[in-house]
Amino acid sequence: MHHLKLIFQASLIALVLLTFAGCKRHSETNQNISRYQEKHRPQLHFSPDSMWMNDPNGMVYHEGEYHLFYQYFPDSTVWGPMHWGHAVSKDLVHWEHLPIALYPDSLGYIFSGSAVIDRDNTAGFGKDAMVGIYTYHDIHREKAGRIDFQTQGIAYSLDKGRTFKKYEANPVIKNPGIKDFRDPKVIWHVDTKSWVMVFAAYDKVLFYTSPDLKTWAPSGEFGIKGDDRLWECPDLFPIKVEGTDEQKWILITSIQKKGPNGGTATSYFVGKFDGKTFIPDTDEQYWLDYGKDNYAFVTWSNTKEIIGIGWMSNWQYAQVVPTQKWRSAMTLPRSLRLIQNGKNYLLTSQPTQSLSTIHRESTTINVTKDTVIQTEIPALCKIDLSFSKSVKGDKSFVRLSNSKNEYLDLGYNHKSNQYFIDRTYSGETAFNNDFPGLHFGEILYQSDKILMSIYLDHASVELFADDGKCVMTDICFPSEPFTKLTIHHSSNLLSGSFTELLSIW
Ligand code: FRU
């Protein structure tokens, strides 16, 4: 009898445990299904849980985590008093949202900046402290009509970026009377064993150096004569020329107007850095991305590869794009390489290798003699196409479309030798006059084929042409996802395939 009672009790406990386990699994699944399914919510790209986001900030790799801080306003879906939002990822693909890292204080809003790991404890905050370097924007001084309202401050974390303490003697760089004085990127310069800061000062960048991240002295500047554009969010890093031992330095700078297709865009220069200032090889200013929607692109600190991410929007219309709960997303994370191109050099961008974790099986597109090929595609997908350049027609292009007669074209113009994206009829476009339109990407290299690799998400397309030598990123807002692919190829399609991609959430 006693024996039976024990068996009964044990079965009851097992049943209760199983039921609970079942419930947990059930609710977890439900949560995943309902999470981030709003209209236009990017499924392959990082976006904030809610509210306004702009530039990526403070990106640093530390103890197995890629940190992504970002310009964030938690009270609205338009720009306002800036904080640093925070997320981490182990693979640059799947992200975990964390609490806000930096709040505005009496010195001002927290504008863009960078982060480093202080391995040798040069600042005395602690070994391997994560130190964030950012701009303070003092709104009271600005409203009072002063011009010295931007300064640089620092904050440190000893718990893997979970909490930050602001340095008590902030600001570390006071404003010398320059209105636009912001967006510090700090790197450790191995040869001179010192910290180097590059930041934007209206139409140029300034360089400062420091032994300890606290005391800074000016060391140089770089700009182009006669430029009337506002520069923002610079970045500076050494990079090996692919296949050689030659090292070059890249200076990235984002430009507030007159991007290659209008509005804001990210550019770069190739040259040398002597520990004090940047010396360009040529005056040539290249575009990292010809699309309209890759701004403030900067790279991660403390990584072996050069990997960066950009804000996938344009100040022309970022605050009025038709999303409800949140505004803006980041580009796909990208690996940068430098290749020799004739006498010059070219920085190429490709999605990071880790994105292959969300690839499902590929489907080969049957190449027929017809000049138009049609196929259904998954709403989240990567499309790979190669065309020959010998053709009589004007263009080789693909149309992504939905059942609402909305479409977006991406392709190559044989006459002008340019890539293009046309989002004129891509869905909701009327919210701003600068949004609809045809955008061109320049080909600054020799190529005998047209290679297009396209990443399609619910609210963006990214074209990595010719192995990342010409890149175009454009956001779009179709009223339902694009699931039809039509290839207009005048019989010059050589091969094609598409690969379904899994949501990162
Ligand atoms: C670039 C930018 C930065 C500034 C930040 C403010 O988009 O204007 O120069 O630090 O945004 O949010």
Any descriptors?
505 residues; mainly beta; Tachylectin-2, Chain A; Jelly Rolls; 2 domains; six-stranded antiparallel β-sheet; 2 helices; 8% helix; globular; disordered N terminus; binds beta-D-fructofuranose
Walk me through this protein's architecture.
- There is one protein chain.
- Helices cover 8% and strands 46% of the residues.
- With 505 residues, it is mostly beta strands.
- A hairpin with a 7-residue loop joins strand 7 (150-157) and strand 8.
- The longest helix is centred in the first third of the chain and has 33 residues, at 2-34.
- It is globular, with a radius of gyration of 25 Å.
- Residues 54-55, 71, 82, 111-112, 135, 182-183, 232-233, 296 line the site of beta-D-fructofuranose.
Question: How would you sum up this structure in a few lines?
Answer:
With 505 residues, the chain is mainly β. It contains 2 helices and 34 strands.
